[in-house]
Write a structure and sequence with these properties.
222 residues, mainly beta, 2 domains, nine-stranded antiparallel sheet, six-stranded antiparallel sheet, 17 strands, 0% helix
Length: 222
């Protein structure tokens, strides 16, 4: 939708919190809505909340998600439990649901360069990314049962995206939307979604140059 490239307005700023807003007028996406994002720091965690309110006179389909990018290296580990993954075609559209095995397995796996751009379902709402060389990990918690993973073969990034709806869900028949995670908002109704990123890292002292790796007892899959 157009909000991906349109500017957001800063409507509130505090030392550890900020709120952004965006209002979409009907166009390529034919509904009028208002979205807000809030960013809050607390302890070792970042909490991002996203809301969408239908300002149209008719019902509007809605799905929410965040798309955070993380750096990765050959040692980076992703750990997430899911029950299904969707294979994709050349247009990155879902084709068939299979068990998350082999290169699709997200359980304690080296994720960098895996060549994935796939949607997963049956997610339990928690995932961890670990960087053993930095003794650092990030835990992601979200009220979602779906996860989109982008781990391109030729880039040192991984994208772990908590989402409420299946990829390309709006291409399905309307009666299938609820099963695919699409929420239909009535006029002035609002959907909300909050994701927490909790960082665990060692505290460095001035002059520290080296960090011990994480315990090597993890059973990591390739």
């Amino acid at each position: 939708m157009c909000w991906k490239v349109a500017p957001w307005r800063v409507i509130h700023v505090e030392p550890r919190r900020a709120v952004l807003a965006f209002e979409h007028r009907p166009g390529e996406w034919p509904w009028h809505y208002r979205a807000e994002q809030s960013f809050a720091l607390s302890g070792h965690a970042l909490e991002i909340s996203l809301s969408c309110q239908n300002l149209s006179q008719g019902d509007m389909p809605c799905g929410l998600g965040l798309h955070p990018y993380f750096p990765c290296s050959p040692t980076t580990i992703l750990n997430a439990a899911t029950t299904g993954v969707w294979t994709i075609d050349d247009s990155v559209l879902p084709v068939s649901r299979i068990a998350p095995q082999g290169r699709y397995d997200l359980a304690l796996t080296h994720i960098c360069g895996r060549g994935l751009d796939n949607g997963y379902d049956g997610w339990n709402g928690s995932a961890e990314i670990l960087w053993p060389e930095h003794q650092t990990r990030v835990r992601i918690d979200a009220p979602a049962s779906r996860l989109q993973i982008y781990a391109p073969a030729a880039k040192n990034i991984v994208v772990v995206e908590p989402v409420t709806n299946a990829n390309a869900a709006l291409n399905a028949q309307e009666e299938s939307w609820p099963a695919l995670g699409i929420q239909v908002l009535r006029p002035l109704e609002e959907a909300r979604f909050t994701v927490q990123f909790e960082v665990h890292a060692p505290k460095l002292r001035p002059g520290d140059r080296k960090i011990r790796p994480l315990a090597s007892s993890l059973g990591v899959s390739e």
